[in-house]
Amino acid sequence: MVTSINLLGGGGGEAAFRDPAVSPEGKRSADPLPADIAARNEELVDAWADRLYHETADNILDWTREYAPGPVVLTMSMENTVLVDLAQGRLPGVDMVFLDTEYHFAETLTVADEVEARYPGNKLIRAKAILSRQEQDETYGKNMYQWNPTACCRMRKVEPIQRELSAYVGAVDGLRRADGPTRADAPALSLNKTGRLKISPIITWSLADTEDYIRSHDLISHPLTYQGYPSIGCATCTLPVAPGEDPRAGRWAGSGKTECGLHTD
């Protein structure tokens, strides 16, 4: 009798698991932009990135409505609902995409449902990985988030969002420079690796600015943000942080990992 040995780490048992460097078969990236749109996006970033670097959220969204050479999408983590509220009247009817990693806190999924109900004029797309959570465990080994969080984020976050971006010329995200040192110099306008616009209207906001906006506009709020979770990702990889700590200190705590890849791809 020959026993197969898992040399890839993390899975355990007798099964031979797939190399986590190799993603599952299926659509994992955005379709290429038409050449004229890609060229126009590059021209826009060259002309406007510096001018928008310190601009207000409203002005950045007004710029998006006027200059983006096609439809954009809001990328919603459901940590807060500021983006969709800001977009009302400035990007009417803009689509939203939410990454349902299947590892979320229950509260995050509740916020997504509440957003869908509160903003019926904005389509909510729930992007999921090619493999379900159970299928991933069976294919690559259990709990990949523990022993290879980079591969887990690639399969459950980066690739699903890239797939959903095919219909858009750009994405509007909730990135803030105040979120931590890896984002301290982030631009308000840039290109992602597929040549799509990456637009960050609240880039200059602090966490306090965000909380003030949520309160003053009576927005849907994520309950965990009041329980020591200023930055919320998957439940398996997010811990509360102490007052005064980097807001993202609870993300992948102890692993040395600081970004999932969504803002670097």
Automatic annotation (TrEMBL):
<protein>
    <recommendedName>
        <fullName>Adenosine 5'-phosphosulfate reductase</fullName>
        <ecNumber>1.8.4.10</ecNumber>
    </recommendedName>
</protein>
<keyword id="KW-0479">Metal-binding</keyword>
<comment type="pathway">
    <text>Sulfur metabolism; hydrogen sulfide biosynthesis; sulfite from sulfate.</text>
</comment>
<dbReference type="InterPro" id="IPR004511">
    <property type="entry name" value="PAPS/APS_Rdtase"/>
</dbReference>
<keyword id="KW-0560">Oxidoreductase</keyword>
<feature type="binding site">
    <location>
        <position position="237"/>
    </location>
    <ligand>
        <name>[4Fe-4S] cluster</name>
    </ligand>
</feature>
<keyword id="KW-0963">Cytoplasm</keyword>
<dbReference type="Pfam" id="PF01507">
    <property type="entry name" value="PAPS_reduct"/>
</dbReference>
<feature type="active site" description="Nucleophile; cysteine thiosulfonate intermediate">
    <location>
        <position position="260"/>
    </location>
</feature>
<comment type="function">
    <text>Catalyzes the formation of sulfite from adenosine 5'-phosphosulfate (APS) using thioredoxin as an electron donor.</text>
</comment>
<keyword id="KW-0408">Iron</keyword>
<dbReference type="InterPro" id="IPR002500">
    <property type="entry name" value="PAPS_reduct_dom"/>
</dbReference>
<dbReference type="GO" id="GO:0004604">
    <property type="term" value="F:phosphoadenylyl-sulfate reductase (thioredoxin) activity"/>
</dbReference>
<feature type="domain" description="Phosphoadenosine phosphosulphate reductase">
    <location>
        <begin position="73"/>
        <end position="240"/>
    </location>
</feature>
<feature type="binding site">
    <location>
        <position position="152"/>
    </location>
    <ligand>
        <name>[4Fe-4S] cluster</name>
    </ligand>
</feature>
<comment type="similarity">
    <text>Belongs to the PAPS reductase family. CysH subfamily.</text>
</comment>
<keyword id="KW-0411">Iron-sulfur</keyword>
<feature type="binding site">
    <location>
        <position position="234"/>
    </location>
    <ligand>
        <name>[4Fe-4S] cluster</name>
    </ligand>
</feature>
<dbReference type="InterPro" id="IPR014729">
    <property type="entry name" value="Rossmann-like_a/b/a_fold"/>
</dbReference>
<feature type="binding site">
    <location>
        <position position="153"/>
    </location>
    <ligand>
        <name>[4Fe-4S] cluster</name>
    </ligand>
</feature>
